[in-house]
Amino acid sequence: MLRRILAYSIFALGILTILFFRSYEGEMIPYPVVFIVLGVFMLIVAYIILRRLPLIKAQLEHLKRLHDVSDLKANGIMIDVNLADCEIRDNSYQAIPEADAGTGFPEGIGDLEKYFEVIDALKNPVRDRKLAEIHQSILIFKTKYNNRNMRFISRVLTKDKATISFLLDNQKHTALYVDKTDPTRYFFDLDFLNK
Q1: 19-34, pLDDT tens digit by residue?
Q2: How far apart are CA 192 and CA 195, in angstroms?
Q3: What Rg, from alpha-carbon coordinates, does the chain have?
């Protein structure tokens, strides 16, 4: 939040600087063009700061997810999950990472190098491109809940099947929190996979 306020302040200061020195005719400051360039630089800095900040919508969604998880932990039914009973499904593939794929114009100084790499790759299509391993896995836990057979599916995990199997063998058990009134609202406690 403070960075957003800082970015808007720099942006406003840049606009005011440009507007003031564009029509400046005094003799106290001999080169007002320098201040106009400084104002443009402030606008660019403010733009870069704003582009690097997560969107407000994404922040609100994240806060809502955290609230939902804490609500499920406090008010939901906790089911002890034997991780040996979980099925692991994975989808692993190779792809050019998004940063190397050339998604558009550079957004900052660090992106200029990537931009020039994309231009170079377009000139020389035979050149080797770096492929990255992409791992996507989920856990499926089947159990009887309220006299019905239910399947609970975890969020997408960014680890390969072998790593997940190893981590599950070490952990043995975890918790599954299910809403008492709506069994489609649940939370797999898989925080141990991120350690």
Answers
A1: 988 888 888 888 888 8
A2: 6
A3: 26
